[in-house]
Amino acid sequence: MKLIAVSAGLSTPSSTRLLADRLIESARGELAAQGHTVPTDVIELRELARDVANHLVTGFPPSRLAAAIDAVTAADGLIVVTPVFTASYSGLFKSFFDLIDPDALTGKPVLTAATGGTARHSLVLEHALRPLFAYLRAAVAPTAVYAASEDWGSGGDEYTDGLPARIRRAGGELAALMAARPARAEPEDDVTALERQLADLRFD
C-alpha cells in the first residue's frame, strides 16, 4: 500500500503542510500496528501552481504535474488538506482535482482536512470538501479534521476533542479503510494478456 498526502498550503512554513504531516504520521502508525509497512509522500501544490495553470490552458500536463497526478491516482489512500479561502477550498486545490480523471478516485479511501484562521470556517469540511470527494465516488473517512489557529497546542475540553485526538481518530479511520480495501491485481504484461486471449479462442 502507498499513502499520499496533497497539501495546498501556499506559504513556507505552512500550517496546512504541518497538518498533512501529522495526519500521515497518525495513519501510518495505525497501519504499522496492523503489520503494514506503508511508504508515504506529500505533494505540495504550491510547487505545481504554474504547471496546473498551463495544463488547464493547453490540455497537456508538464512532467512534474503528470507524475503528481499518477501518484494520486495510484495511491491506496489519500490525505487532502487545503487552506480555507472565502469559506471554501482554495482555487489551486480545486484546479488540481479538476485535472484528475473523474473515475480515478472511485472507492479510494480519502481523509479530508482544512486549515484556517478561525473556527468559524470549520463547516467547509462538510459543505465543500466532502461533497467534492463524494462526487468523485471516493470512500471518505467519517472524521474530517479542521485546524484553526487556536487549535494548535490545544487539548480540547469536556465537550470537544482537541486537535491531537481528532488527528488520531481520523488517522485510524483512514487506516481501517485502507486495510479493508481489496488488494489490487497486478496488471498483466502484453505477453500474458495475449496468451490469455489465445487460450480463450481455442476449441476442444
UniProtKB/TrEMBL annotation:
Native organism taxonomy: Bacteria, Bacillati, Actinomycetota, Actinomycetes, Kitasatosporales
Enzyme class: oxidoreductase
EC number of this enzyme: 1.5.1.-
Coiled coil stretches, renumbered: none
Keywords: Flavoprotein, FMN, Oxidoreductase
Keyword ATP-binding attached: no
Recorded GO MF terms: oxidoreductase activity
Limits of the NADPH-dependent FMN reductase-like domain: 1-152
Pfam families named in the record: FMN_red (PF03358)
Name of the featured protein: FMN reductase
Keyword Cytoplasm in annotation: no
UniProt xrefs under InterPro entries: CE1759_FMN_reduct, Flavoprotein-like_sf, FMN_Rdtase-like_dom, NAD(P)H-dep_FMN_reductase
PANTHER family: FMN REDUCTASE (NADPH) (PTHR43408:SF2)
NCBIfam families named among the record's database cross-references: LLM_duo_CE1759
